[in-house]
Design goal:
α2 runs parallel beside α6 and α8 packs across α10. β15, α7 and β16 form a beta-alpha-beta unit. By secondary structure, the protein is an alpha/beta fold. Strands 5-6-14-15-16-17-19-20 form an 8-stranded parallel β-barrel, surrounded by 7 helices. The protein has a 4-stranded mixed sheet with strand order 7-13-12-11. A 3-stranded antiparallel sheet has the order 8-9-10, with no helix packed on it. It binds inosinic acid (IMP). Inosinic acid binds next to β20 and α12.
Length: about 500
């Protein structure tokens, strides 16, 4: 006979947090939102941590290179979608890595005999106004000078004259030598009041450029996540079909974290693929998997598959119709609490901590807070980020409001058959959809929406007397709420003006 779980499948909307003792030190400024992503042994640090507990979903309508850049700057991580060719996905990763916050490889290098007109064409293509000049016009050439938009006037100077006539020549350029630290490079920029510092090899070839604007940007985004080479961190979705080709390409392009993007990760395919990655890369790559909704699924992936983190959630996504189509899934809160319990017991038993990501179905800021209080180390969201200006979709006007399209990876529009079609015998086609295609209102930039969400999270943590996310989870006391108390919690018995454009619920 089928086993029936005794508990009802619960969602985040059914819970409220009770405040704990708030002491004087419990102020938002003192709150740390650091969250581990890579599994770690008790007493040792995680190989990869977020500065805010938020990542974006591996979806076509959500995570391209612009989202990845914006989110890493805020301290989170985007998982660039894998429902595209390996080359395209690797190019998106490489683009994020090109936004190196320190030593930048020039993409506007030019030959001294090239004309100002040619320089303008390169500038228009790259959007960068500073060009290094080398003797052969490539990054491998000897550095001979630098030219910026201050060195000539587009509408006054003869655009057919060579760059060499206008550039600042090597003799007058302040430069650094390879091996210089970023701090020293910034000090030189400051001391000599320069915008750009070329860094040269010992034999005079160009190595990289350091920009003042990157320093300012870094100071304005103290939470940004950088790799060992001061490049922004980026994640990538992978699947269990072409991982032997995709993973090497993504790692070569610079992906820091990989995550299997699967609607049901409790499978031999995922365990096999995860073990292959471990064998090939050891601990050099951080790799997560899922999705699961039970303790059994967690153990299978975390223990037997040796994954770094496990994503929880089936059927809760805003664009998801899996539960209606196939009858599988579980209320997100129940799934999360079961998996967190299993993870905590596993940690107790083995000393290995496996971070948990709550994926999908977070309808508002409160639910993000409840998920973290219940023990998710971080949350993955699609709709939330699809609504921002950095998602890769165009704005459309419907009625008098501005929207962006948002579609599920299991919809015919995405055609992500690797995520949904049956493994092994799959013919590469979706026989039925598990996701829909719709619109979401545009709400602003990633930094604006996260600013509000994280301010609420910090405030709630202070209400509970917690200064870190693990402490938040330990201190959290939750209560189930009745329908009447949910009604009582909203505004009641007053008239409200019409909801404004940009409201997120
Ligand atoms: P959201 O934040 O509620 O929009 O949910 C996003 C999550 O839904 C993703 O991270 C995926 O786990 C999941 N998802 C993405 N596309 C589909 C789909 O087409 N069907 C079901 N789930 C999906």
């Amino acid at each position: 006979m089928a086993r029936i779980l005794p508990d009802v499948s619960r969602t985040f909307a059914e819970y409220l947090l009770l405040p704990g003792l708030t002491r004087r030190e419990h102020i938002p400024r003192n709150v740390s939102l650091k969250a581990p992503v890579a599994a770690f042994q008790r007493g040792t640090p995680s190989r990869f941590e977020l500065n805010i507990p938020v990542v974006s979903a591996s979806m076509q309508a959500v995570s391209g290179s612009e989202m990845a850049t914006a989110l890493a700057r805020q301290g989170g991580l985007a998982f660039v979608f894998c429902s595209q060719s390996i080359e395209n996905q690797a190019a998106m990763i490489a683009k994020v890595k090109g936004h190196k916050a320190g030593f930048v490889r020039s993409d506007t290098t030019i030959h001294p005999t090239s004309t100002l007109r040619e320089l303008l064409a390169i500038r228009r293509r790259t959007g960068h106004s500073t060009a290094a000049v080398t003797d052969d016009g490539t990054n491998a050439g000897k550095f001979v000078g630098i030219i910026t938009d201050k060195d000539f006037w587009e509408f006054e100077d003869n655009l057919d004259t060579p760059v060499s006539e206008h550039m600042t020549p090597l003799e007058k350029v302040i430069f650094g030598r390879v091996g210089i630290s970023l701090t020293e490079a910034n000090r030189l920029l400051h001391r000599h009041k320069k915008e750009c510092l070329p860094v040269l090899e010992d034999d005079g070839r160009l190595n990289s450029l350091v920009f003042k604007k990157d320093y300012i940007d870094h100071m304005n985004n103290p939470d940004e996540i950088l790799d060992g080479d001061k490049r922004l961190a980026v994640g990538a979705g992978i699947n269990t079909h072409d991982y032997k080709e995709r993973v090497p390409a993504l790692v070569a392009a610079g992906a820091d974290v990989l995550a299997f993007d699967s609607s049901d990760g409790y499978s031999e395919y995922q365990k096999e693929a995860a073990l292959w990655i471990r064998e090939e890369y050891g601990d050099k790559v951080v790799v997560g998997g899922g999705n699961v909704v039970s303790a059994e699924g967690f153990h299978y992936l975390a223990e037997e598959g040796q994954l770094d983190f496990v994503k929880v959630g089936i059927g809760g996504g805003s664009i998801c119709i899996t539960r209606e189509q196939k009858g599988i899934g579980r209320g997100q809160a129940s799934a999360l609490m079961d998996v967190v319990k299993a993870r905590d017991a596993y940690y107790e038993r083995t000393g290995r901590y496996v971070p948990i990501c709550s994926d999908g179905g977070l309808a508002n800021d409160t639910q993000i807070i409840i998920a973290l209080a219940m023990g998710a180390d971080f949350v993955m969201m699609g709709r939330y980020f699809a609504m921002t200006s950095e998602s890769p979709t165009p704005k459309v006007s419907i009625g008098n409001r501005i929207y962006k399209p948002y579609w599920g990876e299991g919809s015919n529009r995405a055609r992500n058959w690797q995520r949904y079609a049956e493994e092994g015998g799959g013919d590469g086609k979706l026989k039925f959809e598990e996701g829909v295609d719709g619109y979401v209102p545009v709400v602003g930039s990633v930094s604006e929406v996260l600013g509000v969400t994280l301010a609420k999270l910090r405030a709630t943590m202070c209400n509970l007397g917690a200064l870190s996310l693990p402490q938040f989870n330990r201190e959290a006391v939750l209560t189930l709420v009745s329908e009447q108390s949910i009604e009582e919690g909203g505004t009641n018995n007053i008239i409200r003006p019409e909801t404004k454009l940009g409201d997120r619920e």
